[in-house]
């Protein structure tokens, strides 16, 4: 029986490559379908693991407490914004959805500035509006409110760049992506 010595290692390498590709595809699928659960599994891991799983963040910030925050925004067509917070050693300490009631109600009118809003939700992807009669600039982020009603979370700033108010406005037209 003739045996070609190079076939087995080549087959094994192909099989290992297929397993690796399948595992990466599965992890990417999980990251897309359940990003918070996927992010929670990476807690304690390095920045590189988060980047491999979720890709390049849309915004990055160095926060006052030494935390580095990566924002992953699905805006303007999606409804989600996620934050990955890393400690001073570059280890993931939290991964969470940012367009929740708890996060939205943490905004402090009269205290927060545009920088605070940027660090919380990232650069708005919807057009920035200015209302001259109110003398207010408005940033808007698309979100869902229960039970999956499309809405806009808006932050209004004074001319000095301080948060004046926030509001959630239901999108009466519904989901623009449904045609």
UniProtKB/TrEMBL annotation:
Residues 1-24 form the signal peptide. Keywords: Signal. This is Lipoprotein.
